[in-house]
Amino acid sequence: MNRLRVRQLLQQFLIEDIGERDVTSNALFSSKDEGEVRVIAKENGIFVGEDVIREGFTLLDEQIHVNLLKQDGEGVRKGEEIAIIEGSISAILSSERVVLNLIQRMSGVATLTNRAVKVLEGSSSRVCDTRKTTPGLRMFEKHAVQCGGGFNHRYGLYDGVMLKDNHIAFAGSVSEAVKQVREKIGHMVKIEVEIETKEQLIEAVEANVDVIMFDNCSPDIIKEWLSLVPSHMTTEASGNLTLDNLHLYKETGVHYLSLGALTHSVQSLDISLDVVQTRKEQLI
Length: 284
Description:
Strand order of the largest sheet: 6-11-10-9-8-7
CATH topology of the largest domain: TIM Barrel
Structural class: alpha/beta
Number of strands: 12
CATH architecture of the largest domain: Alpha-Beta Barrel
Distance between the termini: 41 Å
Shape: elongated
CATH superfamily of the largest domain: Aldolase class I
Number of helices: 10
């Protein structure tokens, strides 16, 4: 992830949560009160969020010391320590919820992705994500997919052409849509076409697109139609793919299986922050 972007987004999230001040922490602790906390996994999974922990806890106080015990993509077991944080109590408590919210979600995405990857073990198909991400969190969620062993589809509308059903409907046909975009984009931009019928597939092949997506096609249909796709073209299947039916697509031969559920239906991994030690100024 881009550390500058991570810091920028965390600033926005902390401003949203803290507002003018953290009324509770500011009333209880002085700027000199220090303590130690540990970030603990409450269930098994894949941890993601080292940059979030490092940047999130030090944004409010650069003197806070962060000792990361786990790296992005590492497995964690229930009860394992992920990080040890030492420093200003008020700064730690003011950052706690934002940091936990993010690392719990990212770790949940990575854990779910890893489960999908394991379903496809032994096949040549790869798991990838979609643009069905949480607004504002796309960078975090896409990074989590990678840490879980998956691959990223395009990041947004800006880094690849994807001709979906509505684009094709407005343009009139697959051929016409490809013709128009090819006249205007640069040679570094790939073109993907979403197809739902055999006729659209033939059009896409004849237009020599870079990627063909089989949208809402059954495994049997994909197997049958793949014989029409030249070997140099990348193929993808999408639409209603879940962990429960992913195994049915395992032997189709399609290169990528994209699951929106990796980011839009994920359950956060349970992670907590526990107090270890308090060193209040008035006790010294």
